[in-house]
Each structure stands twice: as structure tokens, then as C-alpha cells.
Amino acid sequence: MSSRKKSKKIIPPIPCNWKECKLFFDDIWELNEHITSHFDELHQENKAIRSCPWIECTFETNNFMELKRHIYYHGYYTGLLIRGKYECEENKNIPKCKAPTKEFDKIPDLKYNFVCEWLDCQRTFVSIVEFHDHIIQHASFEYEIEKSPNDIRPKVKCKWSICNKLLENRYRLIEHILTHSNKKFAACQNCGEVFRTRTTLFDHLRRQPENNTHKFQCEQCFKYFATEKLLRSHFLNHINCYKCSLCDMSCPTSSSLATHIRYRHLKDKPFKCTECEHRCVRKIDLEKHMMHIHSNHVHRCQEAGCNYTVRTYNLLRRHCLEVHGNSPFIYMCHCCDKLFKHSKYLSKHLIKKHDFKLPSGHKRFTYRIDENGFYLLETLRIESLEVTKQILSPHPIETSDLTQDSTCYEIVSMTNEQDQRIIVANDANEARLVGEVVISLPIDNISL
Fold first, then answer.
1. 44, 48, 52, 53 alpha-carbon torsion, rounded to 10°
2. What is the DSSP letter of 61?
3. Neighbouring-strand partners of residue 279
4. pTM as predicted
């Protein structure tokens, strides 16, 4: 009877590229120990400046410990290259890297030893391989301590500096803690870039311009992506995960929320124009003000026979579209297909003719370009479940009370009556409705 047991992957042996050494090793640990034996040769050299003995490496230093860290990393990096080559050869459907070929190993600047930041540890390591092994032992030991006598799998806390994240099991804890140490899985054999997982290595190969099939399109902004995973990752940029504590404005990033608060709710404008009384929130705003108002710099239309000049590039772009382009009207009402030259005219039209109201917390409508090149009203706003709770709750919700369920989102349809909401989860059968629902998900299963 033939065995159906999967055969164990056999990774090709890893070479030691120390000059004049032609040995190969089955794993990175054996190579690491072998490199240690080579250091006796370096000790015998009484030189102020020491050169790296690795093949084709030109690194030099007067610090012996820095040289050791550098050489140990060479062995680690060689293992990543061998793993990357193996993974690509095993997956024939993955395209080859078209980026410029690396000239030598990409070794980072290693001025200090690797420090374990696990609670009450602080051990340091010259070898990155020993460093990674050490922190894995921390994770395994922590799991054994937390494991109950009844062998019920506990949630284990990561005790890395300023972390304290709870993980479901030993495997998740080890996987998580290795992100703190920046452990890599493989390197691209062509360009030498390193990657944390096999998936990110394959994404690197697929997303290159020569290999990109443009198969996956975002239905919110119509950008194309090489893989479904990249599309899903990109789609998170359209989800508002942060709510302003002073109004109902929601933003996709913490930085955009900070910008909103700074401009909307704070009166401080520290940057004053030296030519007039105008004040600005940021230095870059002042620079734009100086260029647009107080400088002689202008943008000129490049069309033959046109002498149009303007101070801002956006106005020049609008001029080119309206006068020289094929689309003088670039804003379109999604209700009656009427065309407008400016967003403010379309906004007035939507409010007066179609009884639209601004979304709660927002000062203006937002528009997005469609596949035909027209800007249409953004009629969907996607929010995280946590933001939904904060907006709908009549009482302030403490951050500690939120579930932090990143697999649940809310889609808000802006209407002329009231925001219509649907809370969606990873499983479509678990969708929970709030009010009347007239919309559906932009893409299936948007959670990662």
C-alpha cells in the first residue's frame, strides 16, 4: 500500500562562503556553528582594519565585534537566499524577478549586538541566529507556564517590551514574537530583498510591472493589483477605523484623524505670513500661501497659441481639461446625470434638487472618479465596528469597552433621509442590521 503521507521538504544545503571554504551544511544552525570555528583565523590577524573574509564582500571595520556580527549575518542571509531559490523552483507558476540583479549580499549596518527585550531578560547576542533561537525559547517557556493542568489551550501574553498582546497558542506566540526580532523567511535570489513570509516573497515577484497581470481591481478607487491578497490589504485603506472624539468624523488612519482635529477643532495657527496677516496651521501651508499669493511664480499652459497663466497647478489642470481637453465637465450627478465643472456646484445641486444632507461630522461631500473619468458622489462610507459603536451609542464609549474585532466593518449609505447602515462580518450570515439596508458589500469577504 502506498503511503499518502506528505514527504518532508528537503531544502538544498547551505554553502559557507568564507574564502577558500567549500563546505555545505544542512541547516542554518550547523553553518552558524561552523562560522564560529573560522574566527580563530581572524584572531591571529593583528590588523587595525579588518576585512570581511566572505566571498565578494568589501566590508571593513576596526571593531572586531562588529565584524563578527557582520559575518554571522552573512551566514543567515545565505540561508535566506537558498530558501528563496528553493521556494521559487518548487512553485513554477511564480514569475521570475525582473528587478536589477544584486551585486553582493545586502547586509544591514550592525553597530550593536542584538538585544532580547523580553521582560527581565536584556541578554545580548552577536549572532542573529542565536538571537532568534533564544526568543523562541522565551515563547515556548511562557506557554508551558500558562498551560493549565487540564491541557486547555490558554491565551498567552507576549512579554516583549511595550507589547502585552494576547495570543491564542504557542504557535501564534512564536510567530508574533519573531516579528519583534524582524526574522525573515527567505530572500529573492535575484535582487536580494528579504521577506518575512513565502507569501510576501511571491507578492514581490507578482507585483513587478513586467509580471503584474492587473487581474484584481478595487471597486472603490479602481486601482489594479497583482494578487487578491494585495487587493484585500489595500482595501483596508478605505475603512474608517478612527473616530473623532469631538464630532462624528471618521478617518482611515490615525494621522488623518490628527490632521482633522488640528484643522477643525484647534484654533492654534503658529505660522504667520511675513507679508500679510494670514496665519497657517502647518509650515507647508505657509509655504503654499507665500508661493500662491506673494511670489511671481506662475504655471503656464503648454498648448500652442494659449497664453493662459495661473498660480496653482490645480487651476492649470482644470483649465486644460475644460479648454483643451475632451471633458470640460468633470463632475456628474449620479441621480440625474447632470454635469458640472466644479464640485461645489454639484454639492449645491445635490442639496437643493435631491435633498441630500452632509454626513454627520463631515463639512463637505467627497467625490471619487469612476471608470469613465467623471467624479461622482462617494455614496458609501466604510467604518470599523468600533467606530460604529462610538457613533451610534448615546453615551461615550471607553476604548477599553470596544471589542477590537478587526473582522467586522460597517458600510454607511449616505441618503437624503438618514444614514442607512449594515454591519458586516467575515461570514455573510453573521451580518447585523441597523436600520433599513439597501446596499451590499463592494467586494466579497473584505476581511483579511
1. -30
2. E
3. 272
4. 0.55
DSSP state, 16? P
**Total Cβ atoms within 10 A of residue 391:** 19
In this predicted structure, the answer to whether residue 423 has a pLDDT above a threshold of 90 is no
- Taking 50 as the threshold, does the pLDDT of residue 399 lie above it? no
* CA proximity to 64, closest of 87, 45, 83, 85: 45
- More confident: 377 or 126: 126
Distance, in Å, from the CA atom of 278 to the CA atom of 289, rounded to the nearest integer, reads 9
Q: C-alpha grid cell for residue 153? A: 489551550
Residue 19 main-chain phi, psi, to 5 deg? -55, 130
Give the residue carrying C-alpha cell 511595550: 162
Rounded CA gap, 135 and 245, in Å? 39
Q: Name the pLDDT band for 335 (thresholds 50, 70, 90).
A: confident
Do 215 and 209 meet the contact criterion of CB atoms below 8 Å apart? Answer: no
Q: Annotate 140-158 with three-state secondary structure.
A: HHHHHHHCCCCCCCCCEEC
Q: How far is CA 170 from CA 77, 166, 175, 344, in A?
A: 26, 11, 9, 56
Tell me: the pLDDT tens digits for 209-230?
Answer: 766 666 777 776 777 776 777 7
Give the integer Cα–Cα distance in Å for 103 and 100. Answer: 9
Q: Which phi and psi (to 5°) does residue 397 adopt?
A: -105, 130
Q: All 3 cell numbers of residue 19?
A: 574564502
- Domain range annotation of the chain: 9-212
